[in-house]
Specification:
The complex is a heterodimer. Chain A is mainly α. Chain A has helices spanning 2-30, 68-100, 104-119, 122-133, 139-147, 162-187, 191-199, 204-229, 236-241, 250-253, 256-267, 270-298, and strands at residues 41-42, 53-54. In chain A, 69% of the residues lie in helices and 1% in strands. Chain A has a two-stranded antiparallel sheet with strand order 1-2. Chain B has 2 domains: 42-167 and 341-450, D-Maltodextrin-Binding Protein, domain 2 (3-Layer(aba) Sandwich); 171-335, Periplasmic binding protein-like II (D-Maltodextrin-Binding Protein, domain 2, 3-Layer(aba) Sandwich), CATH 3.40.190. Helices cover 46% and strands 12% of the residues of chain B. Chain B has a 5-stranded mixed sheet with strand order 2-1-3-13-6. In chain B, strand 4 (154-155) and strand 5 (158-159) form a beta hairpin. Chain B is globular and about 75 Å long. The chains are: A mainly alpha, B alpha+beta.
């Protein structure tokens, strides 16, 4: 008991240090949650938020009105699943490759080069893509296809290419960032393990397979869990800017975010946009709890909670 | 012990928001108090202190730097005249509606503003019923604007706003480079046609196509036709009353049957014209994704023609913006509908505490030439000068980008017809606009307004469908055989028939109530 008491007293400063963060969290993340009631109300500006009429789930109806509900849900989920799988594979591969580089200078250079796209705003990325794909003056139509003697492609009205274009752009932009996290945890692996593996006669590939990857597993699982929680959100810039918001592509490029944005931009309706946001959060919450439950079953040590 | 720590934390967690809440509560009465004391001290003085209102309008891009200076100058007139002191605010047009909604929910003072979205603001209860205030304080305003026009901003006989007074008879114009026309000895002259089915229109389109083919052949470096598809494109040549939102419209000039615009033969006919132009290579091939303003291509000398929905004076605007001379010809008769009148409306915020003062000021702004000039162009001899022929120009060394109050937003000000016209126009410009306003045909459904609250989810879904196809169809980039039937089917899936039925019901009731016969 006495010893315990001492422990508590020693911990006090930590709680004190926690306080500002906690206050920030409460003010910024918890108090605004009161706003979810907007999703269930018919906002009347003369009455204010609290006194506006309750309308139940009416504001959610428009999301499920058309076949679009299926298309946008499908697009959002499939794109995100692709991004998570490919992003993880590419991120881990690059991290391992970088780690194998002996020269620190080269590693730093590669890392910086890989990270650069992450720092570019999506709007600018959109115009870089546009410079390649523009029908009249784009690089691909004007130079590549022209030299190959092929007909120009109307990229912004041919939807079949876009799943590949978007995946490519997303990987190109995101891989530098995700590999940093993996690289950091690889660097944290105790070097003596590699040394003893070497003594036992394990080659490079064997070391990667039996030491690096297993030890990287917790990081990979945490990263995946965090992405899964956002699986119902899409990168608005990627799907809106990079596609130049071209109507002809919607079937393959429309996601929940862009759909809601476009629909509500014209409606000027606070309640419906809140309803859509709440729907996204609720499904995201259910998904993260579900995936975490699965992880806990399979490998309880690595579960988030 | 552990429980104790936890409970302290919990208590902390709970008191923080409470403290925040208290903070909010304690500031509110405080500000109320100060207002009250201000009023009290005012009433103690000999003359009552002026009532203060906040007036808001949209700006293009950056907020004008000299708002305060302009407000002060206006107050020099408004305080002695009506004892109202204004504070001018401006928000970029890009987030104007959202900012307004936010400010209204958070209780910030906004009393009078230019609404660019009458119907949706009406549905969101953002506008105040000002009928009684207008009776009391707005007599001159009503006679200046005319009671007929106020119908467009009324719902169930109550007035919720006042249309901006300017040239309302805007219509589809074809705009072509004058020097190129002259070079090939082309002298187009067109009569205004009543509808796309009108033989006059057929002849016009044929002649325009001929001109396009000549230019296409002889000026290979030039794009023949481009217009931003965010606008209306050529769809203005279909004669219709959009009944607020173009979802369910009245076609032609007779009858009260609400129909799906996109399904009509007239609309299809218009789409075919555009598609023909596109396949002939006249229209810029990436029109559907190009968001560039037509002016930049025109100024670069790369573009021969564009389509504009506007009033007379367009040639002066294009000349100012591009440096070239342009031939602008109206090809369709204008058609006044509720929407063309209430597209821009000055309204009192439903959260306003001082609606009387707001309406008093509205009355002044719609009828006093000096106030109108200041709202449109800023302070005389600072932001603008009067030229010898009586038009408004920037002073030496000042232009739209350097002016502290650019004249580029004059069109949203309450009454630009009593203000002086902008440079480049003839001195009798406003007289001509007034004339056109009076002679333009008026829709039989003028004054009808659609309450879409019962079908708002269908409308959101329909907007999403229209958004998917409109750029491709209006620009001619989509193949009609393949896409048009799909477009129509998707609209049906989204519930356009439900909206049309609801609109028909409301329109019938409105027609009966107002004694409008077929």
């Amino acid at each position: 008991m006495n010893i315990r008491k001492k422990h508590r007293i020693v911990q006090w400063p930590y709680f004190l240090m926690l306080a500002p963060g906690l206050v920030y969290l409460i003010i910024n993340n918890y108090i605004p949650m009161f706003g979810v009631i907007i999703a269930f109300k018919d906002i009347d500006f003369s009455k204010g938020i609290l006194k506006s009429d309750w309308v139940g789930f009416r504001n959610f109806k428009f999301l499920f009105k058309t076949s679009d509900a299926f298309i946008i849900t499908r697009n959002t989920l499939l794109y995100n699943v692709t991004f998570i799988i490919l992003g993880t594979i590419v991120g881990v591969t690059i991290a391992i490759l970088l780690n194998e580089l002996l020269s620190t200078r080269m590693r730093k250079t590669y890392q910086t080069v890989l990270l650069l796209p992450q720092l570019i705003s999506m709007v600018i990325v959109a115009y870089i893509v546009y410079a390649f794909l523009n029908t009249e003056s784009g690089f691909i139509n004007n130079t590549l296809l022209n030299a190959a003697g092929k007909e120009p492609v109307y990229w912004y009205s041919e939807k079949k290419y876009w799943p590949f274009i978007l995946t490519f752009v997303n990987l190109w932009k995101g891989m530098g960032y995700s590999c940093i996290v993996y690289l950091a945890s690889i660097m944290g692996i105790d070097q003596s393990m590699y040394e003893s593996a070497k003594i036992d006669g394990a080659g490079r590939m064997r070391q990667i397979w039996s030491i690096t990857l297993p030890l990287l597993k917790p990081t990979i699982i945490t990263m995946i869990l965090m992405s899964v929680g956002r699986i119902f959100y899409s990168d608005f810039g990627l799907f809106y800017q990079v596609t130049m918001n071209s109507g002809a592509l919607y079937e393959y490029t429309s996601t929940i975010d862009t759909y809601v944005y476009r629909a509500l931009l014209q409606m000027n309706d606070l309640s419906m946009s809140s309803a859509a946001a709440l729907y996204q959060s609720a499904v995201g919450f259910v998904l993260i709890v579900a995936v975490n439950a699965i992880v806990r079953k399979v490998d309880s040590e690595n579960a988030l909670f | 012990m552990r429980k104790k720590v936890l409970s302290i934390l919990l208590a902390l967690a709970m008191t923080v928001p409470m403290a925040v809440g208290c903070g909010n509560q304690s500031t509110e009465p405080a500000s109320g108090d100060s207002q009250q004391t201000a009023e009290e001290t005012a009433s103690e003085g000999s003359a009552a202190a002026p009532e203060e209102i906040v007036v808001r309008f949209a700006c293009l891009g950056t907020v004008p730097a000299d708002l305060q200076q302009v407000a002060d100058a206006i107050n020099e007139i408004s305080i002695p005249e009506i004892n109202v002191k204004i504070d001018l605010e401006s928000v970029s047009i890009a987030n104007y509606d959202n900012q307004l909604a936010l400010d209204m929910t958070s209780g910030e003072q906004v009393d009078l503003f230019c609404s660019m979205n009458f119907q949706s603001m009406m549905n969101a209860h953002q506008l105040m019923d000002i009928t009684d205030y207008l009776d009391q304080y707005g007599k001159e305003l009503v006679s200046e604007v005319s009671e007929d026009w106020l119908k467009a901003t009324s719902v169930n006989g109550r007035i919720y706003g006042v249309p901006v007074v300017n040239g309302k008879a805007a219509t589809t114009q074809i705009v072509m480079r004058k020097d190129i026309l002259d070079k090939y000895d082309l002298h187009p002259e067109y009569e205004m046609a009543a509808d796309v089915t009108d033989p006059v229109m057929t002849a016009t389109i044929e002649d325009i196509s001929h001109i396009f083919s000549v230019v296409k052949e002889n000026e290979p470096e030039m794009t023949v036709l481009y217009y931003p598809v965010s606008g209306n494109g050529l769809s203005g040549i279909v004669n219709k009353d959009p009944l607020d939102d173009s979802i369910g419209v009245l076609m032609g000039t007779e009858g009260f049957e609400v129909v799906d615009l996109y399904e009509t033969d007239e609309y299809m006919q218009m789409l075919e014209i555009v598609r023909d132009w596109y396949t002939a290579g006249y229209i810029k091939s990436d029109i559907a994704t190009d968001t560039e303003n037509e002016m930049s291509y025109m100024a670069a000398g790369r573009l021969f023609a564009t389509i504009s929905e506007s009033e007379i004076g367009t040639d002066a605007q294009y000349k100012n913006g591009t440096g070239y001379d342009w031939t602008c010809i109206k090809i369709k008769e204008p058609y006044l509908t509720s929407q063309s009148l209430n597209m821009m409306t000055w309204a009192v915020s439903s959260t306003s505490q001082v609606p009387e003062a707001a309406v008093k000021f509205m009355n002044l702004a719609y009828t006093n030439k000096d106030v109108a000039n200041m709202m449109c162009y800023g302070v005389k001899d600072v932001h603008w000068v009067l030229t010898e022929e009586g038009t408004v120009a920037y002073p030496e060394g000042v232009d739209a980008s350097t002016s502290g109050y650019p004249s580029s937003t004059y069109w949203e000000m309450p009454n630009s017809l009593i203000a002086d016209p902008l440079v480049g126009n003839t001195p009798d410009y406003n007289e001509l606009l007034r004339q056109n306003n009076l002679t333009a045909p008026v829709s039989r459904a003028m004054g009808f307004s659609f309450d879409n609250s019962s079908v708002s989810s269908e409308i959101a879904a329909i907007y999403a469908v229209v958004d998917e196809y409109r750029a491709g169809l209006l620009g001619g980039a989509l193949d009609l055989d393949e896409n048009y039937p799909r477009f129509i089917q998707k609209l049906k899936d989204a519930g356009i028939d439900t909206v049309i039925a609801e609109k028909q019901k409301q329109l019938d009731a409105w027609a009966q109530e107002n004694g409008v016969s077929e």
